[in-house]
Automatic annotation (TrEMBL):
Top-level lineage group: Bacteria
Name under which the protein is recorded: Ferredoxin
Matches recorded under Pfam families: Fer4_13 (PF13370)
Length: 68
């Protein structure tokens, strides 16, 4: 997806806060101390592959990567 822009969306009803996305893409996802998942909605071009990998690894399939 080199050269493409994407937008991330997390379904908070599906997310179980396992933080696998944070391990896969720490620049994009962070589990806060109060249990909320913080994430970058519009990753830069260099982060697109990390975003895709995090979505693939999510056991709840809560992360969607949409092309814009």
């Amino acid at each position: 997806m080199k050269g493409q822009r994407v937008r991330l969306k997390v379904d908070n009803d599906r997310c179980e806060r396992f933080a696998i996305c944070e391990m896969e893409a720490p620049d994009l996802f962070q589990l806060s101390h109060d249990g909320r998942l913080l994430y970058t909605k519009r990753p830069v071009e260099d982060q697109v592959e990390q975003a895709i990998a995090a979505a693939r690894c999510c056991p709840q399939q809560a992360i969607k990567v949409n092309r814009v």
